[in-house]
Amino acid sequence: MTLSNQQPEHRNTVHQIKIFKGLEDDASTIEHDVNDWLEQEKIKVIQIFGNVAPQTLATEAVKNTLSRTNHPPSDILLVVLYEK
User: Is the pTM value of this prediction over 0.85?
Assistant: First the structure.
């Protein structure tokens, strides 16, 4: 039995990203968009990460009330790292 010195072939894969963004009060739409895209593209997901921006007090709330509980929806950002 002889051993081969051949190295296994390495595929040159390029990782790519896809960015999804939206508002927290419409998170189900972002979820739907991501799932549809994953199903259509048939890609290999390496990682998904995201961020929810801090809430900012609505300008109208500052002007019209003393309450600091009126927040507009925060921005959501999802990044999908994938390879084709």
Answer: no
